[in-house]
């Protein structure tokens, strides 16, 4: 099968096309024939070697941890999927990722892709959508009537977080640039803050939860908008325990734990039109296409998700 791999750490030029064996599946796995994958910051962070201490892998490494496609084979113990099913998944974090024509995935990490959702939309959702889900519901327990601030609402995780929070009945504020005002309001944001012109910490208060996708000074200022007992959840860096104590709030960083059951719940919301993927950019499945996609992701200014089309 065709795959785009890295054989050493470094810049985008390390992404090279290679012919590899199609993966064999275990009894609890399915083989997904890939139709689309998407780019996330973890992809180029691994490529650059920033995560080599955490992920001690041998080369070659296939990057990519979003998948949408059709099941080509099922393991002997798999009962909830069959050959031909349309599916999407955030596979386990292994060196055998989704920049490939086929990927083997444990069936409990896979969800059925609704017929009214394209493979490109499906591929955009797993990693970013599940990250948003686990921030909002597993960690902060967001519920109807809560006030939620989502930083970087026009980004991948922010897109899904706005929609999921709204689907749960929360009031949603978000920071973004002026050019993305229409996008985030279209996703359901109740309060748009142009971060270049307004200081969110001066205009917001008494919030139940902040989803921090930026870290640094933004994270520190975010403590100021929370009510006592509120939650700050970061996807970038561990928040200050000292500030959490000062403001009497819960503060934590999360690293995604893939779960097919949560993805199935997201699929229901997607099927019913309550959550949609914003695919801002598409690239072909080629050495050059992946390099361009990584380039764009590294700017931090992609609108919505970056998708790679295999078929």
From TrEMBL:
Pfam families to which the protein is assigned, alphabetical: ADH_N (PF08240), ADH_zinc_N_2 (PF13602)
EC number: 1.-.-.-
Record-linked SUPFAM superfamilies: GroES-like, NAD(P)-binding Rossmann-fold domains
Protein known as: NADP-dependent oxidoreductase
Domain Enoyl reductase (ER): 10-308
Keyword annotations of the record: Oxidoreductase
UniProt xrefs under PANTHER family: ALCOHOL DEHYDROGENASE RELATED, RETICULON-4-INTERACTING PROTEIN 1, MITOCHONDRIAL
Organism: Pontibacillus salicampi
GO molecular function ontology, one term from the record: oxidoreductase activity
UniProt keyword Cytoplasm, yes or no: no
InterPro entries xrefs: ADH-like_N, ER, GroES-like_sf, NAD(P)-bd_dom_sf, Quin_OxRdtase/zeta-crystal_CS, YIM1/Zinc_Alcohol_DH_Fams
Lineage: superkingdom: Bacteria
